[in-house]
Amino acid sequence: MGKLTSAAEICRRTYDTWDALPADWQRVIGLPEKGFKMLIWGASGSGKTTFTMHLCKALSGLGRVYYNSIEEGEGRTIQNAFMRAGLQDVPAEKFALGDRHSYEEMVEELSKNRNRIQFVVIDSIQYLNLTAAQYKNLVALFPRKSFILISWERPGGAPKGEHAQGIRYMVDVKCYVKEGVATADSRFGATEPFVIYDKKARPKLPQEGDQKAASAADPAQLTLQPVEELAPAEEAVAG
Predict the structure, then answer these.
(1) What number of H helices and E strands is found in the chain?
(2) Phi, psi of 190 (to 5 degrees)
(3) Whole-structure pTM value
(4) Residue 191, CA distances (Å) to 29, 32, 214 in order
(5) Are the C-beta atoms of 36 and 42 separated by less than 8 Å?
(6) Contact, 9 vs 119, CB < 8 A?
(7) Closest by alpha carbon to 67, among 190, 150, 187?
(8) How far apart are CA 80 and CA 87, in angstroms?
(9) What is the pLDDT of residues 14-47, one digit of tens each?
(10) Which of 44, 46, 57, 110 sits at 20 to 30 Å (Cα–Cα) from 179?
(11) 200 torsion bin: left (phi>0), alpha (psi -120 to 50), beta (else)
């Protein structure tokens, strides 16, 4: 049941924050409170998985990370993402991959490791078919764990689907990834963009319906092309 607390009492209290989070990451997401919630979204190939892996490496220095890879699962692609982020250097007890765990399996795993897992990554909302109600249930069951959720992007730049949209308004950190740059809007302070890769060094893949591009579908025939600049942070994460 909810209770009433005065402003004076709240101002006297101290709250647990991840003070040991490296300063460069505090500039990206702010100084988060323990049990923070975060949503990361972007188009396919935008760099959101690589960005999340880099974040996981930083968080592994603070506690144990459980990464539920529903979308990719164990395999070569996830291995490559691990290698790009340097996760091979993280001690085994600090990072664990969940190989396509269902919602029920994930809850069971978190219940067994209630005091050992501090950070939970769900990749992705759409592949797990996670609902907003299920997300709220996870938060209620494990209030001291931090949840980091990855979402697909719909045309226009918003998270895809009504449940991802709903979760967007419940989290503390909203992070939009576009063309190799992650831009966050955080309740924990001002942020700076995180450059994941140099977009000018990556080939622009052919788009569906682009006949001219389709003729160059062979990767060996792709040419480097400039891409649009990232939208301003306030537009990218508005709402």
Answers:
(1) 10, 8
(2) -65, 150
(3) 0.81
(4) 6, 12, 39
(5) no
(6) no
(7) 150
(8) 10
(9) 889 999 999 999 999 999 999 999 999 999 989 9
(10) 57
(11) alpha
Give the tens place of pLDDT for each residue, 130-155. 999 999 999 999 999 999 999 999 99
Residue 215 has pLDDT above 60, yes or no: no
Q: Return the C-alpha torsion angle 92, 51, 71, 213, nearest 10.
A: -140
**Gap between the Cα atoms of 184 and 39, Å rounded:** 9
Within 10 A of 142 (CB to CB), how many other CB atoms are there? 17
Distance from C-alpha of 151 to C-alpha of 98, rounded to nearest angstrom:
17
Pairing of strands 95-99, 117-123: unpaired
Distances (CA, A) of 113 to 98, 214, 221: 13, 48, 49
Virtual torsion, Cα 159, 63, 54, 32, nearest 10 deg: 50
Q: For residue 61, what are the contacts with CB-CB under 8 A and spacing of at least 6? A: 20, 22, 94
How far is it, in rounded angstroms, from Cα 181 to Cα 183?
A: 6
* DSSP state letter for 30: -
Whole-angstrom distance, CA of residue 141 vs CA of residue 16: 19
Buried b (16+ CB within 10 A) or exposed e, 16-27: eebeebeeebbb
